[in-house]
Recover the amino acids of this structure.
């Protein structure tokens, strides 16, 4: 089914929307979560969280690129879960865990200032990536958005792993310089 | 700014960039899929090749048996009804060979000795030998109660012969094949005897 048709189901509040999303994007979403969590069960939970969040946010959201929208949700969910698990594994204090749990009770995610800062930074990163060649930006996003292992990136791009490491290194240096010019302290 | 801020900010990069990256990723997945399919096809071809070689060897060996069979009257291959009413089937001759035992015969990759009653007063024995590459076998086929034997030698590593004897005056009889195996330098590398299954000539109590 085409993305536009799936989105149509969301807009008409048809529950088949979730089923169709799952049919089309389950493997994609699970792969993103797996790259971050390396745990089958946790990855599946993040995938399910993504369907729920998509259901709750569309409408009003009307993502121009549905796969990217879902990818962002699952990535965010997986990073949050990873952080929580990581704190627990490190023997995080009950205070930290309590605060983490209370996050759910706090309305809104961040202050307006934080949201604006966050968006500005995202735009700066996007602008920097647009100045780079297609190869560089795809390698960069494969690694830092999708968290793909170097071996997977090598398979997708046909580059050797040393070359990928070199591309990533130069991209990080370039991003640092770019953000510095934009007034960010990195 | 922490690297965590960067990590989070990446979540809101231009969706078109993500779409472009996603295309590249899926291309990698499909090429990985293609590689897997190619690997599978290559493995299948290899297996088919091995199977073809195996069966061609089997067919070649069977053709040795077939030439022997052509020497033997067809009645030898037909089930015979004994006086007790039991069927004495030549299938007993065609019992599955025991390849493990063949391993014991150095220089010989396949050997078969068969005995069968072909008429009221005649018995036929047949044997076939397939030597290992480079080996030659000399064999002597005889039968219990028979006065003579047949001397044979493999040609191009193969041997398939048969001999007919009159039924001896005994309750049962058995064919025996005495084999001497030579290597490519003419040295004897093995000597052994191979016997057929015994054949009952007089039904007990008759």
């Amino acid at each position: 089914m085409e993305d536009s048709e799936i989105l149509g189901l969301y807009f008409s509040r048809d529950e088949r929307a979730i089923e169709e999303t799952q049919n089309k994007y389950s493997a994609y979403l699970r792969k993103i979560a797996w790259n971050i969590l390396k745990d089958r069960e946790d990855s599946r939970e993040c995938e399910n969280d993504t369907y729920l969040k998509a259901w709750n946010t569309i409408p009003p959201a009307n993502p121009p690129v549905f796969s990217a929208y879902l990818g962002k949700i699952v990535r965010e969910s997986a990073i949050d879960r990873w952080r929580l698990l990581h704190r627990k594994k490190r023997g995080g204090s009950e205070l930290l865990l309590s605060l983490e749990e209370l996050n759910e009770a706090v309305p809104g995610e961040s202050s307006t200032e934080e949201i604006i800062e966050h968006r500005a930074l995202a735009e700066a990163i996007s602008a920097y990536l647009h100045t780079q060649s297609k190869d560089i930006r795809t390698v960069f996003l494969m690694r830092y958005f999708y968290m793909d292992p170097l071996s997977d990136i090598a398979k997708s791009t046909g580059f050797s792993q040393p070359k990928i490491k070199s591309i990533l290194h130069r991209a990080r240096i370039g991003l640092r310089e770019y953000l510095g010019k934009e007034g960010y302290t990195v | 700014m922490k690297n965590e801020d960067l990590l989070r900010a990446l979540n809101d990069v231009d969706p078109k960039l993500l779409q472009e990256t996603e295309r590249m990723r899926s291309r990698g997945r499909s090429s990985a899929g293609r590689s897997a399919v190619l690997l599978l096809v290559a493995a299948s071809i290899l297996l088919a090749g091995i199977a073809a070689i195996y069966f061609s060897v089997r067919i070649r060996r069977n053709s040795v048996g077939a030439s022997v069979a052509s020497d033997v009257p067809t009645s030898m291959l037909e089930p015979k009804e004994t006086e007790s009413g039991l069927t004495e089937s030549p299938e007993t001759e065609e019992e599955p060979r025991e390849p493990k035992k063949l391993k014991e015969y150095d220089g010989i990759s396949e050997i078969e000795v068969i005995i069968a009653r072909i008429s009221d007063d005649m018995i036929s024995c047949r044997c076939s030998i397939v030597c290992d590459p480079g080996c030659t076998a000399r064999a002597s086929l005889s039968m219990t109660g028979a006065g003579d034997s047949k001397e044979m030698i493999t040609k191009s590593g193969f041997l398939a012969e048969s001999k007919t004897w009159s039924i001896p005056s005994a309750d049962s009889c058995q064919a025996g094949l005495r084999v001497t195996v030579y290597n490519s330098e003419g040295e004897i590398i093995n000597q052994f005897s191979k016997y057929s299954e015994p054949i009952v000539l007089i039904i007990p109590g008759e």
In short: Chain A has a mean pLDDT of 83.
